[in-house]
Specification:
single chain; 415 residues; alpha/beta; 9 helices; 18 strands
Length: 415
Amino acid sequence: MNDFEAKTTVRDIDVVVIGAGQAGLSAAHHLRRTGLRPDRDFVVLDRAPRPGGAWQFRWPSLTYGKVHGMHALPGMELAGADASRPSSEVIGAYFTAYEEHFDLRVHRPVEVSAVRDAGAGATPDPDSDMTGTPGRLLVETSEGTYRARALINATGTWNRPFWPRYQGQETFRGRQLHTADYPGPEEFAGLRVIVVGGGASGTQHLMEIAEVAARTTWVTRREPVYRDGPFGEMEGRAAVALVEERVRQGLPPQSVVSVTGLPLNDSIKRAREQGVLDRNPMFDRITPTGVAWDDGRTVDADVILWATGFRAAIDHLAPLRLREPGGGIRVDGTRAVRDERVHLVGYGPSASTIGANRAGRAAVGEIRRLLRREEREDREQVGVPGQDRAQAPEEADGTLRDRAGARGAEAFAGR
């Protein structure tokens, strides 16, 4: 056991990255390219047991061929993957190869319990060295506490499934589960299933389950909006702009489908023709045997599957008081408006895989400027000239690593 493995220790570091999904790995890659070294200048913490981000928890029937818009991480393409393999396996193997190729040294499983302002005097143990340090953040984790100059939060949403509450919910005698626990369609064979939710996951679950269930019922709060035709760059920018406006106002980000609509592909068209995607308005209450509407209609069910989405996993940031009255964190680009040391990637407009890549790079660019400014201020205080350590355009071997990216991808594809 090294010194830092003791939970009472504090380690100084420039940047802490929380989360090793698409956004976190992208940020770590760009930190490395600026000249910062993993485990010396920055550290990546991930609560999951293995590489793969939230993808490792996806249900087996979600094959790679069914994944919408998976964008490669910077510096290594995801090429030659078998479309019939579960996405959890394909992307898990890809993330594993990526972490190894760029030597990102992700710490896992590590739970982050809180992020505090070190200058606020957060000193739980008077005998420890956790004294207030102006300009620093205390990142409290299951492996110890980091004292950081900047934080990149890339925790995504998978750990915070959203369960709506309805009258009588606790009386239901059947089974209730969320998308986060969806095991695949086989467990619903011969059962009467209600699927709640009009997003991509809800429709995918419904179409799979309908093939084996005795009966399916689809319920959504809003009438589904279908998108026919291509979803190009112009449409993508318009959708991102809508999400950006919400987070600029300090409101919680909405679901992707709320701004993009459901793609009217062949599977969706076929399910609509067969009556599988026959939408019902949201029920008013849950009964011991099913659900009921105020107009007197009832539906009996064995299972209620809540495909009701997720919320941003940001509770550990609560001590920093970043939330606005609207309930969200207001960000400018990726930077939290209330604290320039904190960047959120994979949040709001950067929740897509391509958006996460771009956000990782943008966050690192701003953090690099913050570190350079602090180093100049430190030197001015002591009157010592010198070169900014964070000013190097990229790590000495970074270019060679990127040029080797294609070779790494070929090796991955052959696994």
